[in-house]
Amino acid sequence: MTMEPFHTANAAFQREGQPGADTFATVCSAAELEHLVTLQDTSASQLLLERQADDLQSTYALSTTLTGKSILDAGWDSYPWKRHADLGEIGTTSPGVAAR
Q: Is pTM, for the whole model, over 0.70?
């Protein structure tokens, strides 16, 4: 685990220098770990096993797998500024111009 995001930590070129093991490992940031333990619809172990089974997905930062899956995302989406931002995108006729 790292304190800050390390986006290429799980990339193939990084893994080449790591010793082989019977158990897979993934590098994540403290924020990604906090996000992982707040999953709603699946267990952390199930999500990690599915991620590891995907040869491409397993090389990405853990955050790409977690997007939209935790109670943190649901909480953030419940704030008024998120709804207002979404409303501004609906009916936009040109960039930066919201429908009235």
A: no
